[in-house]
Structures are given as structure tokens and as C-alpha cells.
């Protein structure tokens, strides 16, 4: 009888120990499951935050791209061709390739550069899709003085006196050098209205042709 009681007590004690040892294991599993769930929620929140950040950055980039594609103000300001006395805007020339040189009648470098523009016209021949413009930016020069210079030199492309608003916009967008004629500033406007400033300094006719040919070859 005593042996049975001892055996019974041992069985009860063993069962108690098994139960007691099992309980922490269950709690550990619950804690592990909880940790995994919290980690998953954290990862989800991080993913959503990253997506929102990416979307915001993409939106800002799109806005910047749209701003860069906006038509420059000077495209819409009226200019007058001193050779024909006809008014026009750069916007009127959309779809053509336009070469613009800011210049002054007194500038010897400008005269040399315009000699190369004249040679460029010879290389290109007659083209309806190309226009070159000499834009006088010296505020002391007027249409009569510019016309006298053009006729004396025999230049047969478009010349106009730059209004103050155009000069300010050129300097603001492309640099103050565009108001410094001896540096022979020039830019190309492609068929889509995008502006491509050329290197400063006198450019040969071949250099000019190489610069504009890709835009001449480009379709609308």
C-alpha cells in the first residue's frame, strides 16, 4: 500500500512538472508570434511610407519637368525684322530650327561670327525649315542703325533689335554672357521649342552645321 501511494504521488508530481514546463513553451510561442506580427506590421508601414515618398518625389520631378518645358516668356514677345519691317515672335517659328546670335553693330567678333553664319547658309542652301536671327542687344542701337549695318555687310537673314524684356529673359535663363556680344553668344531652338545654348567664342560654319544638323534631321 505504501509503495502504491509513493508511486501515485510520483505520477502526480510528474504530471505537474510536465504541465508547468509546457506552459512557458506556449507563452514563448505566443510571444514569438506576436513579435512576428509586429514586425510584419512595421514592414508594411515602412513600405507604405516608402511608396508615399516615392510618389511625392515623382510628382515633384514631374512638376520640374513641366516647368522646364514651359515656353520661355521671350518666345512670345514681338520682334521686328529690320530688313522687312515685319513683326514676328519666336513662337511663330515653332516647327523650324532657329539659330539666334546676340550681337552688336560695334562688335568685331560678332562680325566675324556672322561671316561664318553667312558661310553656313551657303552650306545649307535654301531651306524653309531653318531661320537664323541676329539679335542686337545693345540698348544704344536702334532699328535704323542695325539696318544700315546689315545692308553694308550684305547679310540677308533676319535681324531685330532686342527689347529690354527679351534681353533680361535671355540673361536670366542662359547667363549674363548672352548680353556680352564679344563672347559671340549663340543658341539653337529645335523644332519642339527646346533651347540649346552653344559654346562661347567664334564658331566656324562647319561647327555650326554640326551643331544644328541633328535638329534639322529631327522630325516633329
List the helices and strands and how they pair.
Layout: H1 2-69, E1 79-81, E2 86-88, E3 97-103, H2 108-124, E4 130-136, H3 143-153, E5 158-161, H4 164-174, E6 186-189, E7 195-197, H5 205-217
Parallel strand pairs: 3-4, 4-5
Antiparallel strand pairs: 1-2, 3-6, 6-7
Walk me through the structure.
The protein is an alpha/beta fold. The chain folds into two domains: 1-70; 73-217, 3-Layer(aba) Sandwich (Glutaredoxin). It contains five helices and seven strands. The chain is globular. The model is unreliable at 1-25 and 62-68 (pLDDT under 50).
Strand content: 5-15%
CATH architecture title of the largest domain: 3-Layer(aba) Sandwich
In DSSP terms, counting alpha (H) and pi (I) runs of 4 or more, how many helices?
Answer: 5
Helices and strands, in order, run as HEEEHEHEHEEH
Domain module tally: 2
Low-confidence stretches: 1-25, 62-68
Number of strands: 7
Helical percentage: 40-55%
CATH top-level class of the largest domain: Alpha Beta
The CATH homologous superfamily of the largest domain is called Glutaredoxin
Major sheet strand order: 5-4-3-6-7
- Give the averaged pLDDT, no decimals: 82
Rg over CA atoms, rounded to whole Å, is: 38 Å
Shape category: globular
Q: How would you concisely characterize the structure shown here?
A:
With about 220 residues, the protein is of the alpha/beta class.
Record keyword descriptors for this entry.
alpha/beta, Glutaredoxin, two-stranded antiparallel ribbon
